[in-house]
Amino acid sequence: MSGKTRPFRLGLTGSIGMGKSTTAAMFAAEGVPVWDADAAVHRLYAAGGPAAQALAPLFPTAIVEGAVDRSALKAIIAADPTALPRLEAVVHPLVTADRADFLTVHADAPLVLLDIPLLFETGAEAQMDATLVVSAPPEVQRARVLARPGMTPEQLQIILDRQMPDAEKRARATYVIETVTLEATARAVQELIRKLEAQDA
Length: 201
Prior knowledge:
By secondary structure, this protein is an alpha/beta fold.
């Protein structure tokens, strides 16, 4: 990848329970810098964070001890149809800036992984060089999610109804990794890294 002026950007996504976080950690273990959109939001929402400061005038009851209280914010969004667009107008540019900072820091890396849950839904795939979807059979997905504390079948269905169907994500992806076993997933990650580095050398 010596001829590259910037890293190869691989966008990672996958529905709930498909093993996205585990797969991202495997890329990190192979030395690939990973940017996590959810982690970026947590940083921005933390006490004194840019989003907490920017959201305070809009949603004062959602700010507790200088940080965004996500449950309070969720309640506000549920009660007020105008809240979500106003929230996104503040948070999305901050998340984009956080990602840009990450890319600047890792400008010399041959490959970076951008873990974005709503990769296709937000159109972020247009800024990627390739996309990767992690997937597993529905029964495996269901078992993983229902094993989480407090999760119910009804809650799972609500989440699935909100997400782009797995089949559509797979159809749109450049690459798909099946995450049924850790060993097979790790091999697939290693093979994909080698493939991307070889084709872009």
